[in-house]
Amino acid sequence: MRIISWNVNGIRSTQKSGDLGWLFKQSPDIICLQEVKATLDQLPPEIASPKGYYSFFDWPKEKRGYSGVAIYTKEKPVEVLYGMGIEEFDDEGRLIGAIFDDFVLLNVYFPNGGGGPARLKYKLRFYDAFLKFIENLRKKHKNIIFCGDVNTAHTEIDLARPKENEEHTGFLPIERAWIDKVMSKNYVDTFRYLHPQKKDSYTYWDMKSFARDRNVGWRIDYFFVNKELMPRVKKSFIWKDIYGSDHCPIELNVAL
Questions:
Q1: Considering 58, 149, 189, 246, which one is annotated as catalytic?
Q2: CB–CB of 224/145 below 8 Å?
Q3: pLDDT, position 62
Q4: Which residues constitute the domain of residue 197?
Q5: Which band of pLDDT confidence, cut at 50, 70 and 90, is reported for residue 27?
Q6: What rounded mean pLDDT belongs to the chain?
């Protein structure tokens, strides 16, 4: 099974650039998009309901043109999850999940901690709520996959300039400690597990400073799986040459 995850930073702009066409030509089994920035009524039929896929969307309840997530899947899920059941988080349209017979897939656009102390606190509350949420799901379902824009680089190898960013959100010790906690619960960062020493592998670059031209980036997009599923993971890699967003796509190949 091929799963591709991508923060598109606006699905309509990615469509206009032609890069969304690349994505559908890949024909993965599941597509997970973050930062869709559109409601269903704003999308043309070829994006709202592409041929060969079941499509599911969630978006902010009030703020239009912000956040939003989508799942496209060739196999119809047993159940679709919209949010965690917590109003302050679900109102921003940041999580959509699909329950299948053999696994649960969660597609998440985690909050950015920038914009002041209040947003950092919000991000950390979201982190804690999400970990509780997936731990509860894990009691009912054997295998968990979660993917998306986590908005934090875990270790120094995961960003180009770690020393300069030690006091900036996205690389704060308290944010990185949450990923440590996730891993302590036996969830595996699939890319880093398979490529433990691979440097200069990033998924996000600041567009204003043309950072991608110099590969001054951050790896903040992930596929995590529960430890028991890891032997069935075949590949986890980054589509570094695909543009159309300030993030690039990532892919997981897993035997399910």
A1: 149
A2: yes
A3: 86
A4: 2-254
A5: very high
A6: 96
Q: How is the chain split among helix, strand and coil, in percent rounded to 5?
A: 30, 25, 40
Mean pLDDT over 232-246 rounds to 97
Using CA atoms, how far apart are residues 71 and 36, in angstroms rounded to an integer?
11
| Under 8 Å between Cβ of 196 and 169 | no
* Residues 6 or more apart whose Cβ sits within 8 Å of residue 83: 58, 89, 90, 93, 94, 95, 96
CATH for 75:
3.60.10.10
Catalytic, 29? Answer no
User: For the chain, how many structural domains are there in total?
Assistant: 1
Separation in Å, CA 217 to CA 157, 220, 246: 11, 9, 10
- pLDDT 10s digits, 55-66: 999 999 888 889
Query: Strand runs (DSSP E) across the chain, as ranges?
Result: 2-7, 30-34, 54-58, 69-73, 79-82, 95-99, 104-109, 144-149, 187-189, 204-205, 217-218, 221-226, 233-238, 250-254
- The C-alpha atoms of residue 256 and residue 237 are separated, in whole angstroms, by 18
pLDDT, residue 187, reads 98
Q: The tokens of 198 are what?
A: 């691979």
Question: What does the buried/exposed string (b/e) look like for 80-94 if buried means 16 or more CB atoms within 10 Å of the residue's CB?
Answer: ebebbeeeebbebbb
Query: In Å, what is the CA distance from 9 to each residue of 12, 81, 170?
Result: 9, 22, 17
